[in-house]
């Protein structure tokens, strides 16, 4: 039995990569003083009887560094889209121009930048926890195989493989956080 054991490191790596992907998405939603179409991704509009993402009721554009525009396709939805953006907690005041909603991105003050840095750090810590959970699952599989007759040398080998994978992805999280905090603090 012990010779047949092979830990599915590809599965562990895929799960850790999924955590990184999720972290990148969360970082993209943080407003850094620069316009980004992705900042509207979490905003949902009550359209046609269901909650719909903004990008499915209009075209989201970034015509200049401090401006996002939403060209709403159905003029009956303009008011609902404006209300959804206003109530989204993004801290942006929409301005109407026919079916186009303009979102001027205000300059971030120092206090707001520090708050965003803390939020980014919380996102990164959540990612680290998720990576450690994947590591624990891998280690549990190894312990189970050890109980089924896996040799101690093989156990040590697989444990070091899992730990190396964990260290690699934890380092990626730290690098992503550092880059995001640098972006946030940039004036």
UniProtKB/TrEMBL annotation:
It comes from the Bacteria. Coiled coil: none annotated. One of its GO terms (biological process) is cytoplasmic translational termination. SUPFAM superfamilies: Ribosome recycling factor, RRF. The keyword Cytoplasm applies. The keyword Cytoplasm applies. Belongs to the RRF family. This is Ribosome-recycling factor. It comes from Pseudooceanicola batsensis (strain ATCC BAA-863 / DSM 15984 / KCTC 12145 / HTCC2597) (Oceanicola batsensis). The gene is frr.
